[in-house]
Amino acid sequence: MANPVVRCTVDECAHYKAGDQCMAAQISVYNQGETGHSRDRQDTQCKSFHSRKTVGDLVGSLHNANVMGTVTAAFMDGTQITPNVECFVNNCHHWETNNRCRAESIQVSGPNAGKTDDTDCETFSPK
Ligand code: SF4
Ligand code: SF4
Questions:
Q1: Residue ID of nearest Cα to ligand 1 atom 8
Q2: Pfam families per the record (predicted)?
Q3: In the prediction, which pLDDT does 66 show?
Q4: Which of 70, 84, 102, 118 is 20 to 30 Å apart from 15, CA to CA?
């Protein structure tokens, strides 16, 4: 089943790893919270974002840690680790049934992100 490679520049997230990698086991991409729709990429968000600023947030992120990915990355420098992706942005060109993303790769961004709304799926493309 298709699953995109995730590239992410959100270095405020507890799941971020140098090299623009995401070490979460799974990420969930959502529409804009208030409207429930996405007209452009700024409306999308990575709901799996966890701020690395507080101990509570770091502990809260552990349930979603990609343990095997972390071990693999530690022993195989340069290995691209990627989480399972589920996405609820069903008006995206890359969206497919069962909340899957058929893009080869996605780019997540969010400079100085402090909450999930501050993050975006840059690969969003409206149908
Ligand atoms: S913001 Fe999302 S994609 Fe980026 S590191 Fe965090 S969980 Fe992974
Ligand atoms: S590219 Fe589209 S379908 Fe894929 S994760 Fe981003 S918003 Fe969802």
A1: 22
A2: DUF1540
A3: 78
A4: 102
